[in-house]
Amino acid sequence: MKKRILSTAFIIILISTLTVPDLAQAYSYGDPTEEKVAEAYTEMSAKLNESPPKYDEANKIFASVRDEIQLHMGEDAVQAVQNELDNEDKEAIIKNMQQILVLNISRRLEGVEQDFEEYDTTRKLVGKADATYKKLSPVVKQKNADLDETMKAEFETLLNSLGNPGLFGVGEKESDKEQYIKSKEIILEGLKAQFDMTSVEIGHFGESATDEEAASNGKTDWTDLGQLSNWLPIVLLVVVISSVVIYTRKRRRS
């Protein structure tokens, strides 16, 4: 009996080990240095700057991020880009995509301010905002090199202002929310002026630019917990534990 219990316990531990990473990933923001919409902008720009412009290819790339843009920036943003793709207006397509990236930066940075004490989350969100700005940096630098240097410095200040909880008190650094807000405003005001936008808070396309990763149907931005495959490990673990409990009780009664 003891051997069976030990064997069952080992199985539970093994399943738990395999399951925990999946659960952690379900709530992960992914790689903080990557942003799908920003990557799509870069790829679209490359296709549009070919001679002649490859509008069909750009359209396919845009389709891959269409749902995400619609979720966070609204249908107006999607239609603004799609209409110009249909009209084959290269400059208008690129301009609208640049403004979408600005809104995405604003969305990330506003989210950091709302959850400022959540270090792991805020660090990743700042990383994603910075990764997005890196895609816009060449455009900003071409028009205003001083502004580009200011933006890069302020992103560094943003990251430092988050502080660091350290490990068991080692490497601990106090956060500075006031400095964060100051740097955030410098960045957003600079982007708003550079890309000719009326607002980055409400959104150029008439939608809010706040950072709610679970903005629709209780789903996260990176992993949909509504998918059956994400719940199967949890269900399996519950079934195994329940089976062990029932088996143990029956053995004791007998």
Description:
The protein is mostly helical. It has two domains: 1-27 and 224-254; 35-222, no CATH class. 71% of the residues lie in helices and 0% in strands. The protein has nine helices and no strands. α3 packs antiparallel against α4 (75-87), α5 (90-114) packs antiparallel against α8 and α6 (119-143) packs antiparallel against α7. The longest helix has 26 residues, at 228-253. The relative contact order is 0.14.
**Largest sheet at a glance?**
none
Q: Structural class, from secondary structure content?
A: mainly alpha
Measured on Cα atoms, how large is the radius of gyration? 24 Å
Indicate the percent of residues in helices.
over 70%
| Shape annotation | flat
Number of helices: 9
Total individual domains:
2
* β-strand number: 0
Task: Report mean pLDDT, rounded to a whole number.
Answer: 78
Instruction: Tell me what portion of residues adopts beta-strand conformation.
Output: under 5%
> First CA to last CA: what distance?
12 Å
Poorly predicted parts: 13-29, 206-230
Question: What keywords describe this structure?
Answer:
single chain, mainly alpha, 9 helices, 71% helix
Topology:
Elements: H1 2-26, H2 36-48, H3 55-73, H4 75-87, H5 90-114, H6 119-143, H7 145-161, H8 177-194, H9 228-253
Helix pairs in contact: 1-9, 2-3, 2-5, 3-4, 3-5, 4-5, 5-6, 5-8, 6-7, 7-8
